Amino acid sequence: MPTQTRKKAYIVTGNLLQALVDTKKSENVKGYLVSYSTIEGDTKQGILMSDNFKPENLTTSAPISSRLIQIQQGETVISEDKRVIVEKNTGWRSGYALKVPKSKKQGGEFFEDNKLRSIADNKEFTTRGNYMVADISSDNLSKVLDRLSKMGVTVSKKAKLENSEDVRFRENDIVKISGGRNIKFTRKNPTNTFNALVKYLESEDIKINDISKAKTGSKYVSFEINGVSYDVRAANHTKGYYGKHENSTGVTVYWKDNINGIDIDLSENEMGIDDIKQLISDVEKFNSNENISYNSFIEKKGKSV
Prior knowledge:
By secondary structure, this protein is α+β, with helices and mostly antiparallel strands. It has helices at 16-22, 68-72, 104-111, 114-119, 141-150, 191-203, 273-287, 294-301; strands at residues 10-14, 31-37, 43-49, 59-63, 77-78, 85-88, 96-101, 126-128, 131-136, 154-158, 167-171, 174-176, 182-184, 208-213, 219-225, 228-234, 251-256, 258-265, 303-304.
């Protein structure tokens, strides 16, 4: 267990220019540029978020043309700067309405734009209350949105924080534990895979030798298939280690004449239940000498012991 207080923090990385824009949009997503060291020893730059930051509050910009389907489904879409509204017409009017401010200072660039006017019904904007409005036919909606996007009109959307090339977040993930060891917290959550494995073993009447849960939250299951023992660990952190953490496939193969044991650490990889089933099948094939070499098995599956 950790012997000192651990604090969760978020650093936005990736496209820092876009991230700097995104983190200036409101008080609850503000951060500041920092240099930080990775567990591999590399120094990188990112934006350290404030203590009250919540990932779901981080938004980024997208062209208004990305909202075509939502508008067609009846959703009112408002631009980030609140100057442009596109919505479905109601009542006797068909098609859609493009609304911009009536003042020339705020809306003039739109209602005076010849390309927008040429696409609009009747080729013009008309005054309705505080807005200048152009009616748009269903056939021309995508053309209007494309034109607005080229004019720089954007909408806000939730930032994709994981598996994204542009913006993602990471947690401070190294913790000192007893005995001078470290553990690394990962962004993997193998609970679903672990539960699916147990369910699979039960459905196939494969005897489970042991199933347990440690105080740290790590889950373990061990079983045997045709003389090969399998030990599987599921956790959101690695096992304790000294010094620098070495990246691993999370699969260890025990060998004597044939493969007789497999350890799988789901905190080190992204194996799903289908991957584990395939691994079991490959072990069976190897031990049955079905056209699979030991070297190729090890190269594909993990390290040998």
